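ASSEMBLY PREDICTION REQUEST
Request ID: AP-0331
Submitted by: J.K., bench scientist
Number of chains: two
Total residues: 330
Priority: normal
Notes: Please return the full assembly, not individual chains.
Input sequences:
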Amino acid sequence: MIAKLGRRRVLIAILITGVLWGSGCATLGPVYTKADKIPEDHGLVYIYRPSGFIGGGVAYDVKVGETVVTTLHSGGYYPYFSKPGEVEFWAKTESRSAVTIDVMTGKVYYLKGTVGVGFFVGRPHLTVVPEEVGEKEISDCKLIPESK
Amino acid sequence: MGRKAGKGLCAACLPGVMLLLLINALGCGTTMAITPQVAIRDVKGYQVMGKILYDGNPDHLPRTVANGNPGESVLSFQFSYQCAYGSDNTSQLLPLFNPLSIVGFPIGANTLVVTEKLDVYKEDLLIKSYTATCMMDKTRNLFYEGETYSELRKRGLIAARNNIESQMYEDKDFFANLNAVK
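STATUS: Completed
Returned structure:
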């Protein structure tokens, strides 16, 4: 009886882990390549998240205003062409993270996303990194398909 | 007997509770340091006229400078600012296995340095240069995430702007001699 109960618990735990893990997975595209051209009157913000074990199964939406720019998965990147000016990027799970970039025409920015420890679910952290750091870290990331 | 034992237990718990409260208190909040240190003054109504060379958000511009009529002043103001984000080197593996995390021990930190610069030119000659640097450091724990980088940036830009305004105000005699004060 006890063995039966124990087996059922293990099964449920595996199922929950599988669902949580699977919900964070996505089919990513080709590995990072530099964008050929920045459209006129736009800046380019590379939103990326280096792959890591901690929070690997957690994915979160990165938004500008109420528009979802991309869903940031572990090991993914997304090039976002932004209008110039102050642009706030934000993400939220059980807590909110937000960072504002002064986007200038023709300039390139690197917005790095990570996942930190949370109470029930990993918390998103967004930060701006210098070009030399961003270029290096993004090189292993794969393109996140356009949000539907 | 039972009551005595209860009292003893409470007394034994007290240092532990105090320690937890201390850890929690230390684990949250934002520290801010600004340089140079100047007394913040009320600069309402004080403005130096000239040509402003800045096309960003006007809220960040020191309120002590204003666009004058063309030909009215020979001064021009070049304003710029920068934000540098610190990297959080705290391993995210550590809080997972640190039992103190559950009582509010810090699990990460955000640092931001905002630097503002205002150069004052008379024709093409640099006559004054003001800088202000605001350093902010925020730790977070399981119960307190604190201000976002956007909020820190906004606060830092305002603090640095106020600092430059006060520095300019201290030079009011200098600008009065240039006949540039409104």
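REVIEWER COMMENTS: The mean pLDDT of chain A is 86.
SIGN-OFF: pending second reviewer
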